[in-house]
Write a sequence for this structure.
């Protein structure tokens, strides 16, 4: 077993006292918490390139599963779509396990295995290999994030991949200032409930000049209950990664970034219209371009990335193959098509930042026929039969893919076999 340092012991006590995020199993009847990473459609697309058969069982690991958001989401999606396999929840917190197990029971999910333990001990637990590993909100709390990511990478099956989330610095402006204040007012040696009470008092007294009061994108201390407040402002170890720092961490573990989610957010051309600035940005490599977008936007509080093993072949996605099946992530094609603006521009918003995405003329006709079951060839034939020319249909299909894949909304579904 790993030997905890003082901050690690405090982390363990924190998540035992306040499983994160705060969840109530009774709410499972009302909603399924959805997000990234580890949405099944995203895994099929970004990790497996829409080529791994849906009939092939998926062995997934939630490393640092906490109160179960990712575990429940993936297990439920696999159950709903009739996908075979198992999701292994791994965490040190007995209290978090109770919450996650209650949520699974409320949904009558039978494809989850609950395993106590630390991800740092994975190589000795004999649980892997796994086709997919989720590590969401964990690496930035470890004493050695590189060792943690390397431990996870060692458990990946050939052709497998990962979904991770780490904190990003610019969108968390104000957080670390109040953490510094609370290190003085509420020392880590005190009991968690006492520290929470002091943090609440401080937040009420924090003047309007405090940067966190000016940061509308961080709300855990307001909407996340005691668990959210503790995790944000009282966490004993919390570091953030810029895009280049994240890229170096990933490469050091023998992995590569397949996608930063959403890709559109990391493209500086989404925000820059000045031709001279665009020309300068065009000369940058992909990581530098993503870093530029991060720096000029200022609102990214997290980075979500899908990773594959560097030694494996690069993932390609069969957008040009008529047999591939497009799917809209949490969108209904006909409804989206009916709601398109006459000017063909789709407005999207990322944490308060609005971006106008131009869509091709035939976007509505194509989107109206995307149902997650119909292959591209059949969709395009129907669009042509309705009056479009074959050349126009082909061009607009490619343009629609370019626009909506970058939003993480138009993906390739897993083939049936």
């Amino acid at each position: 077993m790993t030997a905890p340092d003082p901050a690690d012991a405090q982390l363990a006590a924190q998540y035992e006292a306040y499983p994160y995020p705060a969840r109530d199993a009774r709410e499972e009847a009302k909603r399924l918490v959805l997000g990234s990473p580890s949405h099944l459609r995203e895994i099929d697309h970004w990790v497996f390139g829409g080529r791994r058969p849906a009939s092939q069982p998926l062995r997934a690991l939630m490393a640092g599963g906490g109160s179960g958001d990712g575990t429940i989401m993936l297990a439920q999606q696999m159950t709903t779509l009739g996908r075979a396999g198992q999701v292994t929840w791994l965490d040190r917190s007995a209290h978090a396990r109770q919450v996650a197990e209650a949520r699974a029971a409320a949904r009558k999910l039978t494809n989850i295995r609950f395993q106590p333990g630390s991800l740092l001990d994975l190589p000795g637990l004999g649980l892997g290999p796994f086709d997919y590993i989720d590590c969401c909100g964990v690496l930035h709390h470890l004493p050695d994030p590189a060792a943690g990511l390397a431990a996870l990478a060692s458990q990946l099956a050939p052709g497998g991949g990962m979904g991770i989330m780490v904190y990003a610095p610019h969108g968390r402006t104000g957080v670390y200032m109040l953490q510094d204040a609370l290190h003085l007012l509420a020392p880590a040696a005190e009991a968690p409930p006492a520290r929470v009470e002091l943090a609440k008092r401080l937040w009420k007294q924090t003047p309007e000049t405090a940067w966190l009061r000016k940061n509308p994108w961080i709300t855990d201390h307001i909407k996340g209950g005691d668990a959210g407040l503790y995790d944000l402002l009282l966490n004993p170890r919390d570091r953030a990664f810029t895009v280049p720092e994240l890229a170096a961490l990933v490469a050091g573990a023998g992995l590569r970034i397949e996608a930063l989610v959403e890709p559109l957010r990391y493209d500086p051309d989404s925000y820059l219209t000045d031709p001279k600035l665009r020309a300068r940005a065009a000369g940058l490599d992909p990581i530098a371009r993503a870093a530029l977008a991060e720096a000029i936007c200022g609102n990214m509080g997290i980075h979500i990335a899908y990773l594959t093993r560097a030694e494996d072949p690069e993932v390609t996605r069969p957008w040009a193959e008529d047999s591939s099946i497009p799917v809209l992530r949490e969108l209904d094609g006909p409804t989206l098509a009916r709601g398109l603006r006459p000017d063909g521009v789709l407005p999207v918003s990322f944490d308060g930042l609005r971006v106008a995405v131009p869509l091709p003329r035939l976007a509505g006709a194509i989107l109206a026929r995307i149902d997650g079951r119909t292959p591209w060839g059949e969709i395009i034939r129907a669009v042509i039969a309705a009056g479009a020319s074959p050349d126009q249909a082909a061009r607009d299909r490619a343009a629609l893919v370019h626009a909506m894949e970058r939003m993480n909304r138009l993906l390739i579904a897993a083939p049936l076999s």
In short: Residues 326-412 form one domain. The chain has a mean pLDDT of 96. Residues 57 and 85 are 4 Å apart (CA to CA).
